[in-house]
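Progress report, Aim 2. The chain analyzed during this reporting quarter is listed below.
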Amino acid sequence: MKLICGPDDAPIADNDALHVVLYGQRKGEQASVGAAIRYNLHRERLSAAPLAWDFLSIALSAITADKASLRSSSADGWTREFDVQVAVGDPDFWNTQSSALQSAIAFLTTDRWTFSFVTGGLVPPAPAKLVLPDEDCVVLVSGGLDSLIGLIDRIELGFKPLVVSKTVRGDGDKQIDFAKSIGGGSKHLQLNDNCDVPYSQEASQRARSLLFLALGVLAASTLRRYHAGESVTLNVCENGFIALNPPLTGARIGSLSTRTAHPEFFHRIQSLISAANLRVTIENPYRLKTKGEMMRECRDQGVLNDEASRSTSCGRFQRTYRHCGRCIPCQVRRGAFLASGHNDRTEYHYEKLGQSDQDHAGFDDVRSAAMAIAQIAEDGLDAWLGSALTTPNMTDGPTYRSVIDRGIAEIAALHQICGVK
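Predicted structure tokens for the chain:
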């Protein structure tokens, strides 16, 4: 699939390409994305680094491609090929990084990507009455349990975070409440890509992780300390087990297991950001912790106890706005509550995982977790892991192996309590 992405919504000569209007509104068979982000930063009178705008333009182009191309239409039912042209402020720089960018996004989505860059990208001028926020770091807050703990801990450690969220149906109010209620309130940027494509939409959308990072980098570059020449930490808080997300069975490989906060992906994106001289450091403070350990070690147990059950973990939450209780993220969540000793007041649609039917113990994700637990017990963790921790930039394999071992143990304890066999 070929896409031509830029802020100019004039007709294009290539009728085989999807024209993506960046930061504007689509017409006819065009796609559009990002207008609300531009408006919100203008409204807040914030000024972001030019190359941060370029990085956002690339991320917006990628999520539009991901959404506009159905995996079911590809030759193998999953892997797609994209040829993406993006208008940016500094095409010379980005064309030198195209290979690294293609590799990073391919790792994220397991599609084949080709990127090229042309002039004409959006780089908004600084507002006349510029606002320079005094916050000293950025924390991405999704409405999930891990990012809730991350926000609590950053504040308890004495940081003053700028909270950045991508607005998601069902979680928007939680994002606002968490930012307002924790630590006396934090400045909060809620941003929405409003990606609109003219035809059927792919549901998997693995490229969205790139957008989360791009929004964080954009926001980090608006802070006073960044404008003063200092570096800013972008905190992306995810427990180490889910960040690594090892495939539980041979059927859950590649991007079938998501890589939102995978250390290999973070390393590749950090290299691109550093090459662009963007003074933003991506950090996952919990990369070596399980979810249960995050809950147990949270620095304000009272706030966590009040808010944890309101957070969202379910991979299917947006379908019913209720935790299913049986998907992998729900099992990890339930195991974490159990391991930490916190009372889980979450309402789960499928509570009794040990019930032997297709909706409970027979459901694919419950069965996959049970198979993994059984295989590890029989053959050992290393045989089960195989090459899951073998990536070019992961040099701390034994430490990550331990995180996976402890994470599996939390799920195993849940299965035992629930009577899963």
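The beta strands are 2-6, 18-22, 31-33, 81-87, 112-118, 137-140, 161-166, 188-191, 232-235, 280-283. Residues 252-256 have pLDDT under 50 and may be disordered. These observations will guide the mutagenesis work planned for the next reporting period.
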